[in-house]
Design brief:
Number of helices of chain A: 10
CATH topology of chain A: Rossmann fold
CATH superfamily of chain A: SGNH hydrolase
Oligomer: homodimer
Number of domains of chain A: 1
Number of strands of chain A: 5
Shape of chain A: globular
Structural class of chain A: alpha/beta
Helix content of chain A: 40-55%
CATH architecture of chain A: 3-Layer(aba) Sandwich
Chain lengths: ~250, ~250
């Protein structure tokens, strides 16, 4: 039996998943000796560019498909057209179609894979502006390259696709805004996550995994717990254990 | 081309590598888009029990051998005979022989694999005692189940094997004791690592990886950086990129 794996597919919010208190690291810790957490996060990528990776990252003919995959895009797709990050902009209808194709492809890879769509977090425009000034000083753009309103539209579109496709979703955009002070509590530059923001993502992901029957405490440990090993005859403890999980 | 992987093989000090500021999480973050960090840590295990896992975790016939593996045992082997954790005790000569066999097996798996031996950290006996009292109150054992002296002997034995086998090592036992206040700065219960202790392990591992030519900045990113993507013709950016790294 091979070790289960969870794949985190997304943009910088996923690429950073092993930073301080990162949601990916927390997930890897919760599922230690149960599943590997593999990060496939690509900073700055929108869904249009991510589509070029899809079949490379998730080949149909792999020996072991992921048990679960999170799809966490939108923050770059929603960058506004005509502003400084317009290169990353993807029209909302194309964004939806790309998400649809991603989910479809993963469902073909494995009909039993848990696929979770995560919307982008809210945008704190003042935080983005302060960040731009810290980088470019007086040359910083005067108009926001991302707005919370646009973020909300893309988040709604993501939820719409999840419902259409019948897969679970996390509406991070609305969830985070339920908490007073979300602007700086959860976001460090108006877009990327603080340790507290990472904790929100982790809690929401765990909730969806639990509801799908993938809670860590229901999954078997690989190899016996040390307290179950007979020190006088350790070999017997390992022979009894049927759950051997080689690397791949 | 498949994604490179680093495997962390060890006891609880490895199993916990994705906890807060964990050395495994920091490694995964440093090598994002370059290598997967897979934890194979087994809390409470000594090298004798770990030998039963070796061929399962590191099969000879896998499609992709790890690029690097850390071997981080000793904390349980060095538990004293005749004390409360004697079940975990492994005589020092057997500990050495087990480490030797692990290195030999990995060298057969891949002659080019970077194999790093890590000694156990020092033991703060007062911290162990306080921890036992917190768990068992008055029933806590009166005599330490681990001593710093024994830990030092096992650490020396580990270094000896590394030199004999010609592989790099990290003498965590001596390294940590160079810092004043190591007892509680680096250890949370006299044995397991605090966030600061994890940072020491991470820094030492990175140093060895760098010296072996595996520093993150020398390894290629998978797929182009977003700034290199031509928004008018993204396909061309992905065709040029030869470093496609499917999941396995």
């Amino acid at each position: 039996m091979m070790r289960e794996k969870f794949v985190l597919f997304g943009d910088s919010l996923t690429q950073e998943a092993f930073r301080e208190n990162g949601w990916g690291a927390s997930l890897a810790n919760a599922y230690n000796r149960k599943a590997d957490v593999l990060v496939r996060g690509y900073g700055g990528y929108n869904t249009r560019w991510a589509m070029f990776l899809l079949h490379h990252l998730f080949p149909l003919d792999t020996t072991k498909q992921p048990l679960a995959t999170t799809i966490f895009f939108g923050a770059n797709d929603a960058a506004l057209f005509g502003r400084t990050s317009e290169k990353q902009h993807v029209p909302i209808e194309e964004y939806k179609e790309n998400l649809r194709k991603m989910v479809q492809h993963l469902q073909i890879c494995s009909p039993t894979m848990l696929i979770v769509l995560i919307t982008q977090p809210p945008i704190y425009e003042e935080g983005r502006r302060a960040y731009a000034i810290s980088l470019y000083g007086e040359n910083a753009r005067k108009l926001p390259e991302r707005t919370n309103e646009a973020a909300g539209q893309y988040a709604n579109a993501c939820v719409e696709i999840a419902k259409e496709m019948g897969v679970p979703y996390i509406n991070l955009w609305s969830k985070m805004q339920e908490t007073d002070g979300w602007q700086t509590k959860f976001l460090r530059d108006g877009l990327h996550l603080t340790p507290e923001g990472n904790a929100v993502v982790y809690q929401e992901v765990i909730k969806v995994f639990d509801e799908a029957g993938l809670s860590a405490d229901k999954m078997p440990y690989d190899f016996p717990h040390h307290s179950k090993i007979d020190p006088k005859n350790p070999q017997s403890s390992f022979q009894q254990n049927v759950c051997h999980v080689p690397m791949e």
